[in-house]
Amino acid sequence: MAELCFPCLFPSPHNSAHLITFKHHSHGVQLKRIIPRSQKRRISSLGTPESKLLHVGPLESSNPRQKNCKFIVRSSSSVLNLDKAVERGGGEKCYYDAIIIGSGIGGLVAATQLAVKGAKVLALEKYVIPGGSSGYYERNGYTFDVGSSVMFGFSDKGNLNLITQALEAVGCEMPVIPDPTTVHFNLPNNLSVRVHKEYSQFIAELTSKFPHEKEGILKFYSECWKIFNSLNSLELKSLEEPIYLFGQFFKKPLECLTLAYYLPQNAGDIARKYIKDPQLLSFIDAECFIVSTVNALQTPMINAGMVLCDRHYGGINYPVGGVGGIAKSLAKGLVEQGSEILYKANVTNIIIDQGRAVGVRLSDGREFFAKTIISNATRWDTFGKLLKGNDLPKEEENFQKAYVKAPSFLSIHMGVKAEVLPPDTDCHHFVLESDWKRLEEPYGSIFLSIPTVLDSSLAPQGRHILHIFTTSSIEDWEGLSRKEYEEKKELVANEIISRLEKKLFPGLLSSIDFKEVGTPKTHRRYLARDKGTYGPMPRGTPKGLLGMPFNTTAIDGLYCVGDSCFPGQGVIAVAFSGVMCAHRVAADLGLEKKSPLLDTVLLRTLGWLRTLA
Ligand SMILES: NC(=O)c1ccc[n+]([C@@H]2O[C@H](COP(=O)([O-])OP(=O)(O)OC[C@H]3O[C@@H](n4cnc5c(N)ncnc54)[C@H](O)[C@@H]3O)[C@@H](O)[C@H]2O)c1
Ligand SMILES: CC(C)=CCC/C(C)=C/C=C/C(C)=C/C=C/C(C)=C/C=C/C=C(C)/C=C/C=C(C)/C=C/C=C(\C)CCC=C(C)C
């Protein structure tokens, strides 16, 4: 038996619509109540099936902790696990330790990490399934990954396998299929480079294309390894929590100093120290572009070090059944830890009381309260939409000066006849046909994922999935009539597919069995990301990662998580942001050690460092 008190969630019904039977909590008798249709929706969308509700009605209690509550819901369901809420609730408007807005990987990792530390968490997701850009959808027997299928941090070794660790924390383990080639680059001047999992094989292939730069290649990638090895030796937690940070400096001084040294640097500058060949430098740009949507001169060296080595250390591993399984497992794990996740829960406002974030309001009017609020919406959406009407804090103004929204993507999800792919086709390809200058231009380069090369269960027999995507801005898709929009989608998609047909797979156009095209508007609609942005990118040349904000915000009780937080775009990156956020929030909730004095000193120092970026 569980129960939950609400200050005024269920006011007395005025207009009848539904007859629902509840069991009266004090008399133990069946009670028939007529409640409006809208309230019925509220009750069922709380996550408790109607049949399991035992009572909804006025509270008749002499318990002083419940004196401000007007209504009570009792449920035999364990899904909501409400007992704790009563204990903490009772009119104090504080039912949860943390509310997470959004269930992308960033939000889910923060939620699950907090739940295992003993916090009572409520995750609110606008869409019908968890995962955001790491979600999935099914059509005609195909299971499509919404976004990327290149999974870093998903191996069984080291400290940087944050996806594996996040799943393990809630008792989940997913079988994976190792990808022998992270990506096959098809570049101008017929430069073809396969990034083999085996580091020596990759270096041999790259040096065979640039024999005169062998030394430069080795030196550049060795610097990447220095960073990776330092990162991999640390226990990863919040860099905004001084007891942990100083502890790491004490335990691993060399590694921490190495990271501090590289923190304000970019990959392109380091590459130029060793490499002179312009084509090889463009190759390094392409290496960086696929993980940062900008060239090497704008890509933080720490991020480059992380991804350019993890692919060889732990390797890229694809989850059996598709990427969507990761979010599903985390959401399941969250509930099993006694926390909750609600879908179709569109947060429209963060409620501020005396300068502190205390709750959220949904588009259907429901309100939820917690000691801390964590937003997995982008910083632009959090401060521009969920906090509209409030002044933009100086820190956010600085962030918006230093970072702009990266463009979105045009995505083509296709099912094709298997024969069209030559034997031994790689799973991931990056295509830029003739002109290096087009690397960062909209529709300039093409990303291609064929996850069925690794997991054939994702498509009907005799078929492959092709997920093709290319950068595109929302401005290109606005102001069109429905018909014009559909025609443009068809036209642009066919041009991209024809380019792939010419470069990689003759006969591709005529082998299509299923095709669906998403534009930046689709990304905006389904991922609730302003302009459908892929994430933040630096406005100019950044000082490495120095300017990237962590998880705390200028508003007390409000934290951000996801790709507009340190260290930026990428599933593994947002997973790290989730780990950091959960640690900082747990310290503020009293679930982890904290020192208020050191907190003030460190947070001020970090704020000051950001202004130098
Ligand atoms: N587009 C791609 O190709 C792709 C694919 C996979 C992963 N990624 C990576 O994932 C990163 C993003 O991960 P993330 O965790 O930061 O975010 P995300 O965008 O994946 O997830 C955010 C979630 O929050 C929900 N949400 C947003 N506003 C909401 C609101 N007001 N109320 C309720 N729910 C709301 C969205 O519906 C979404 O599910 C990107 O940087 C990218 O690198 C991208
Ligand atoms: C605090 C201070 C000031 C100082 C101190 C010092 C220290 C200690 C420091 C430390 C640091 C740290 C720990 C850091 C960390 C970092 C990290 C973890 C990072 C990470 C990163 C990652 C990333 C960036 C990733 C990314 C990825 C991506 C984006 C991906 C993508 C993919 C795709 C798109 C796909 C492609 C496809 C095809 C080709 C098809």
Automatic annotation (TrEMBL):
What is the recorded membrane topology of this protein?
Peripheral membrane protein
State any single GO MF term.
Answer: carotenoid isomerase activity
Q: Which cofactor does it need?
A: FAD; NAD(+); NADP(+)
| Reaction catalyzed | 7,7',9,9'-tetra-cis-lycopene = all-trans-lycopene
Pathway stated in the Swiss-Prot or TrEMBL entry: Carotenoid biosynthesis; lycopene biosynthesis
- The domain of life is Eukaryota
Gene Ontology terms, cellular component aspect?
A: chloroplast membrane
Q: Name one GO biological process term.
A: carotenoid biosynthetic process
Cite the Amine oxidase domain residue spans from the record: 105-585
Q: InterPro entries, per this entry?
A: Amino_oxidase, CrtISO, CrtISO-like, FAD/NAD-bd_sf
Question: EC annotation?
Answer: 5.2.1.13
Primary residence? plastid
Q: Where in the cell is it found?
A: Plastid, Chloroplast membrane
| Top-level EC class as recorded in UniProt | isomerase
* Keywords carried by this UniProt record: Carotenoid biosynthesis, Chloroplast, FAD, Flavoprotein, Isomerase, Membrane, NAD, NADP, Plastid, Transit peptide
Q: Which NCBIfam families match?
A: carot_isom
Similarity comment: Belongs to the carotenoid/retinoid oxidoreductase family. CrtISO subfamily.
What name is this protein filed under? prolycopene isomerase
Report the source organism. Morus notabilis
